[in-house]
């Protein structure tokens, strides 16, 4: 007699929970065996996304049309040498001799189609052949690149704020152009004093140059402001220039008025007369007072509006201290020159947003500006622009990575949103960990090379989704196709 088991009539339900991981647990200890493999591995798997981005914007076409090549003719070509320097900076190495660590990386060698990269001295000799013409032409490369990236991402700022600032690069050798000047961290040391200009809205580098270690004068500042228009995209109609006291002069103010730019410069040396009856407090909870007047300093071609903010000194609250003889001694003043017609407290609040430029300058210095490769000023001048070009490309890559999540449907973007959300505001160092430092393996499959990523890495789905987004952009016609490349 056959007896039916209860298990034969039990209804089986599908598992609604998460599936268990069927991979075997690893046991690594001091006795673990080790060996080598013949597969090509790379810790920089995210380079494939950068390679796709370079192809998307037709960077080779821009480079060969705008770049002014030096007299030296390398075997790999000028394009490969400059892109090699850019990839070195992409990865995070900012000195030329660091190529010795990357010579046999499978991703880099595959991109340049060589079994091994040239030795570091080959790239150093190319840097040694670069000069002022190459540095200026790289600025033009960035201008065309900016136009293309903005059109790809539907960016059309009609009004932009430009923040100008100088910094100090301390040198510890015998470099040309180094001078003793304002250097708070290394007092008495020689250094360079480069000037940089950033766009507040996109946080990208617009224009700048390497300078001798001296404070900028009025004529040099005016010349720098006159070069801004050639670097701006065509969609920009209104510009606000913000700078500290180093950029305030009769020449710089006159140049801004001639170019049609709005400006806010911190005061340096001017003593405008403010009416004591016009001080006002926009917020009664704060002790700050504001005022404005129109004043023409000696030597200036036209009168300019000055706005001021005064704050009571802290020692006035102490009853044991002696009171100041004059009323002006009781306050600390902040004075600015501007052509804006807003109220004084709004103008100063708009200027205070310029503080973010210090973060951008500091990030640029960490990404390679502090690395001075040569003792010749012309070589360092060109390398300065190479560093800032790599910095801008990282900015554009983060913008497109952020947009790759927005263009997807909510259900499709769920796994990738946690990995790429907010990457646009990350620093380059954080973005490098999220998009670049991903292990990859280059294999031969179906008679073609293929890059494989680990399914156990939580960053892999986001990277694959981003590369699919880049492939989709590469498949559609480009906005600039059919038009002649505008050489600036």
Task: List strands and helices in order, with pairings.
Layout: E1 40-42, H1 47-56, H2 59-66, H3 78-91, H4 106-112, H5 120-129, H6 132-152, E2 159-166, E3 169-170, E4 179-180, E5 190-192, E6 195-199, E7 204-209, H7 218-226, E8 238-243, H8 250-259, E9 262-266, E10 289-295, E11 304-312, E12 331-338, H9 344-352, H10 357-369, H11 377-406, H12 414-420, H13 428-435, E13 440-445, E14 448-453, H14 460-475
Parallel strand pairs: 2-8, 8-9
Antiparallel strand pairs: 1-13, 2-6, 3-5, 4-5, 6-7, 9-12, 10-11, 11-12, 13-14
3D structure, described in words:
Helix 1 packs parallel to helix 14 (460-475), helix 2 packs antiparallel against helix 6 (132-152) and helix 10 crosses helix 11. The strands form 3 sheets. An 8-stranded mixed sheet has the order 7-6-2-8-9-12-11-10, sandwiched between helices. A 3-stranded antiparallel sheet has the order 1-13-14, with no helix packed on it. A hairpin with a 4-residue loop joins strand 6 and strand 7. The termini are far apart. The chain is built from 14 helices and 14 strands. With 488 residues, the protein is of the alpha+beta class. The chain is globular. The longest helix is centred in the C-terminal third of the chain and has 30 residues, at 377-406. Helices cover 35% and strands 16% of the residues. The chain has helices at residues 47-56, 59-66, 78-91, 106-112, 120-129, 132-152, 218-226, 250-259, 344-352, 357-369, 377-406, 414-420, 428-435, 460-475; strands at residues 40-42, 159-166, 169-170, 179-180, 190-192, 195-199, 204-209, 238-243, 262-266, 289-295, 304-312, 331-338, 440-445, 448-453.
